[in-house]
Amino acid sequence: MADLTDTIAVVTGAASGLGAATARALAQRGAKVALLDFNLDGAAALATEIGGKAYEVDVSSARSGEAAFDRLVADLGRPKILVHCAGIAPGKKILGKSGVMPLEDFERGIAVNLVGTFNMLRLAARHMAENEPDVESQRGVIVVTASVAAFEGQIGQASYSASKGGVVGLVMPAARELAAHGIRVMGIAPGIFETPMLMNMSEEVQKGLFASVPFPHRLGRPEEYSDLVLSIIDNPMLNGTVIRLDGALRMQPR
């Protein structure tokens, strides 16, 4: 088990869901956590609870991302861990009853989920590369969040699936390139988890999703995502791949 005492860890989307669970788990292991979120109030409330610091960020914006990293590095120091959980789940048919999907609706999913992932990864890597290497010659660990929708996108998920498919495609080339700097890059593709994103769906939709998970026959818990993050951090041989965390779920067309 890696010693995370006083290790600087950045978690995006930290105000709720998978990000909040991960921020708590890292803090419990002794890390100093920078909580980044568009929802600054939510991130600040959790930061107070776990002894971290909160920063407002629009992950899709170069200027916003750079400013957030400059502030957190000045306050805490260079990060050794990034867990990127920020994202949105836009849903709209390419050609629905109301007509063709506006291009900007597709672009928004790509901007937040894919461009935002790359933005946070590049900024974290920039600072991690200056860290002193540990006994494994490692300077940092980056974990990004994809989705099972990257592999079995449903009807109405064109933007979401394309963006998460891009995240999957980013992991290997990033891991290969950043290996020269001692930085590992991993991805997690969650299935259906108990997050605000899902809880905002109708009860009927939630029941249908619940029934589709083979085993365990329930929704995933955010703590199960954070447990996997810690396992990735602890195991230096995990690099350059995306792990499905889905209870053997394979999404149906609708």
Automatic annotation (TrEMBL):
Record keywords, A-Z: Oxidoreductase
Domain of life according to the entry: Bacteria
Record keyword Electron transport present: no
Oxidoreductase among keywords: yes
Record-linked Pfam families: adh_short
SUPFAM superfamilies the UniProt entry points to: NAD(P)-binding Rossmann-fold domains
Family: Belongs to the short-chain dehydrogenases/reductases (SDR) family.
PANTHER family in alphabetical order: 17-BETA-HYDROXYSTEROID DEHYDROGENASE 14-RELATED, SHORT-CHAIN DEHYDROGENASE/REDUCTASE
Stated name of the protein: SDR family NAD(P)-dependent oxidoreductase
Protein's organism: Jiella mangrovi
